[in-house]
Design goal:
- By secondary structure, the chain is α/β, with parallel strands linked by helices.
- It has helices spanning 17-31, 46-53, 72-86, 122-145, 203-265; strands at 4-10, 36-40, 60-63, 92-98, 113-118, 149-157, 176-178, 182-183.
- It has 2 domains: 4-230, Rossmann fold (3-Layer(aba) Sandwich), CATH 3.40.50.300; 232-271.
- The protein contains 5 helices and 8 strands.
- Strands 1, 2, 3, 4, 5, 6, 7 and 8 form an 8-stranded parallel beta sheet that branches.
- α4 (122-145) links the parallel β5 and β6.
- The chain is elongated.
Amino acid sequence: MQAIKVLVTNQKGGVGKSTIAANLAAYLAIQNNVRVNLIDFDRQSSSSKWIARAPDIGLEVHQANLPYEDTGSLVLAEARRCLNKFSVACDISISDLTWTYAMSPEFMLEYDIILTPSATSKFEMASSEIFILEYIQKHINQIKSRRQHILMVPSRVDRKFQAEQTFLNLQNVEQCSVAPPIFWIPAIDDFVYEDFLCVSTNTEVAKNFSTFGGYVAKLIADKILTKKALHESEHAIKRAANISILDKYRAEQQREKQAKRADIRSWIPDFLVKK
């Protein structure tokens, strides 16, 4: 089965996107014991640098240098090529991408799960909601058929954060949900590029990110089961179709044999025909 593809993206910088991408990859690799690749589409390479400098846990990192100066179709084609190339030989592929409108929204359809980190000020939430709503409105049929899930991630928020008061315009969208928040904890700065948050020596930092990571891991597990069921269903349908074709062929052959026998018998005298 193909890797589950997860995109971490937003058009707004400074929302913890690269921190989430690098540390989610580490959480899944450590806690779920799966093969995880990270594809860094950002020119700043923040998530790549974090993984490179933190203890080696076997994460495979790929840098994708997109030609943003080219036309949209060329950027899209190169992005798809990188995604397909770097998503092999792993169970989960995580992409870190600061969204730019040089990129076609069609690229988002390549993913099983989209994570959109956002601050929770009214302006930031409105900007993130518009970004996702425009994508959904344009591609709703493909999103439904591919069973894609979009996860809004409250990032760097106060400990008094209340999820029910955020992303109100997306709460009734079936394909969207809100993740457990990632709190702004000053101690996080001590672990940047030094270690992964889910295994940090600060209990509060480790617990907070692990709660978020566990929520995403559950979504991925559900997606794996769904894909497996669809694959088995498609295989069963193909097998049934093949059997049906074979049965039709055998029936046709049998009819032809019977027709030949009847034709031969019509030319043989009755006293020579076996009763």
